[in-house]
Amino acid sequence: MNLFHVSSRPSCPLFTCHATAALPTHPSPPPPSSLTLSLTPSTSVQPSLACALHCPHFQSCSGCTHELNLHHPIIVDEATNFFKKYGVSDFTFDSCKLWGWRCRAKLAVRGSSTNPLIGLYEEGTHNVVDIPDCKAHHPNINAAVDLLKRGITEVEVQPYDKDEGTGDLRYVQMAVTTYNTSLPAAERYKNGKVQVTLVWNSRNENSSRSEKLNALANFLWRNGGPRNNFHLIHSVWANFQTSTNNVIFGNRWRHLLGERDFWEHVGGIDVSLAPSSFGQANTRAFNILLKKLQKYVPCGTSVADLYAGAGVIGLSLAATRKCRSVKCIEINKESKLSFEKTVDRLPATIESSITWHHADASKEPLSWLVGSDVVVIDPPRKGLDTSLVDALQNISSIERRVLSSSESSSSRVKEEKRPWVLRAKEASVQVGSKTPQDESTQSLPQTLIYISCGWESFKEDCKALLSSKAWHLEKAHGFNFFPGTQSIEVLAVFKRGHRKAKSGKKKKKRL
C-alpha cells in the first residue's frame, strides 16, 4: 500500500478534546490495572480506599473532582440507565489503569527562578498550584518536571508573569512515548521517555533571551539524555507564544535536541505524533478503545473518519480490518505531517485507498458520507455540529434521492458520481503510483460509530439521532480515560433503521 491523497479545503478553527487537567493516584498497592465491569442500574459500589486517590494535591489542584472509587465514577450509573432506556442493557465499563495513566500533560510555569511552580491553575483563579507528586502523571512526567525545575534555577530562567506579560517560560508540555521495541512489552510503559516542549515568551528563536532557551534545553539533555544512567528525555522542542490570551501554543515550533519523530503503538499500528498535534493523554485506555472499535467494522468496508486528527482511528482500521477505502477528514492542518509519517509505516500488504482531507466535517457533511459503509465520528467535547446531525437524521431520504439521481445519470463517467474524489484530485498530493480504488456505489453508511469525550453533548446528539428513527442503538461501552473526574469516554454503535427483535430458538425438549 503506497498511496494516499492529502486534499486541501479552507482552514477553520481547531477543535480539540481535553480533559480537565492532570490527575492523581495512590501509595498503597493498587488493584488490577484494568477491570471490565458489566453494569446494571442496581449496581451499588461502596467507597473503597483501595481505589482512592491518596493525592497530596487534592483540593488545591483543579484537576480532580473526587477521591474515592476511581474505578467507578458516579456518572457510570447514569450512563447505564441512559443506554438501557434506549435498548442497550449490556453496557460495559472498562476501568482501565487508575494511577500513573497520564502520558500527556500541559502545565503552567509560574513563580520565580529560585522557586519555580509547575502545575495547574487553582480552581477559578490564575494562581498556579505546584503538583510535583501528581498521582495521575506517568512517573517519568513528574521526574521530568523535577529536572526542569532544577534547570530553571541553574540557568536563571524567569517564569512567566501573566499580569505583567514578562518572563521567559510560560508553559511546558510533557508527552511520554512508550514505544521502545528493544524492551519487552511489559517494560515499555515504565521506561517511557519524555518529549519536552518549552513554550517561550517570544516571537521566535532570535529573541534577546534565546540563549537562556538554548541553555535550558542543553541542561535537560545533559542531565536526562542518552548519556545518563537514567535516559529520561526523548527530545526538547520550543514553541514561541506572545499572545495575552489563554491559548497555550503559538504557531512557531522549533526542534532543539533529541529525536525529531515521536512514535507510539496503538490500535495495531505505529503512530507518529508531532508536539503540535492532538494526542490522547491516556495511551493505554485509547488502545483498549481502538481494539473494541475494530470489532464493529466488517472487513473490506469503506470507512469515513470524521474529526480524524492525525488519522489514528482510520489508519488502524485500514491495517486491522483490511478496509476497501478510508478517508480521514480533519480541520487542523498541523495533523497532515503526522498522518503522512504514520502511513509510511503501515504494512506494505495493505491494499486500502487512503485519503486525508484538510476540511471542516460540518461543511457539506454529505460529501464525506457518500460511498462509505461505516462512518466514525470523534468530535470535540461540544459534540456534533448541527449540520452533521441534520445530515445523519435525514440519511434515509437523502440516500433515496442519491440513488435516484445515480440511476438517471448512469451514462456519466463514474468519477463524476463521487464529488469527494473529484475534490481530492483537484487539490491533492499523491504518493506512489497506485490510483484510488473505484467505488461507483452511491450508498450511505449503514453503521455509525460515535466516540465521545463529552457525556452531556453525547446525550443530546444521541437523542437527536434516535428521534429521527433513521438509527437505533446497537451497542455501547464506556472507558475510564480520566480517573478522578466525572468524565468518561463512550463508544456507541448505531445501525440504520429499527432494532430487529431477537428471535430466540426454542430449546428441544429432552425425551
From TrEMBL:
<feature type="binding site">
    <location>
        <position position="280"/>
    </location>
    <ligand>
        <name>S-adenosyl-L-methionine</name>
    </ligand>
</feature>
<dbReference type="Pfam" id="PF03602">
    <property type="entry name" value="Cons_hypoth95"/>
</dbReference>
<dbReference type="InterPro" id="IPR010280">
    <property type="entry name" value="U5_MeTrfase_fam"/>
</dbReference>
<feature type="binding site">
    <location>
        <position position="307"/>
    </location>
    <ligand>
        <name>S-adenosyl-L-methionine</name>
    </ligand>
</feature>
<feature type="active site" description="Nucleophile">
    <location>
        <position position="453"/>
    </location>
</feature>
<dbReference type="GO" id="GO:0032259">
    <property type="term" value="P:methylation"/>
</dbReference>
<keyword id="KW-0949">S-adenosyl-L-methionine</keyword>
<keyword id="KW-0808">Transferase</keyword>
<dbReference type="GO" id="GO:0006396">
    <property type="term" value="P:RNA processing"/>
</dbReference>
<dbReference type="InterPro" id="IPR029063">
    <property type="entry name" value="SAM-dependent_MTases_sf"/>
</dbReference>
<keyword id="KW-0489">Methyltransferase</keyword>
<feature type="binding site">
    <location>
        <position position="330"/>
    </location>
    <ligand>
        <name>S-adenosyl-L-methionine</name>
    </ligand>
</feature>
<dbReference type="GO" id="GO:0008173">
    <property type="term" value="F:RNA methyltransferase activity"/>
</dbReference>
<dbReference type="InterPro" id="IPR053304">
    <property type="entry name" value="RNA_M5U_MTase"/>
</dbReference>
<feature type="binding site">
    <location>
        <position position="378"/>
    </location>
    <ligand>
        <name>S-adenosyl-L-methionine</name>
    </ligand>
</feature>
<protein>
    <recommendedName>
        <fullName>RNA methyltransferase</fullName>
    </recommendedName>
</protein>
<comment type="similarity">
    <text>Belongs to the class I-like SAM-binding methyltransferase superfamily. RNA M5U methyltransferase family.</text>
</comment>
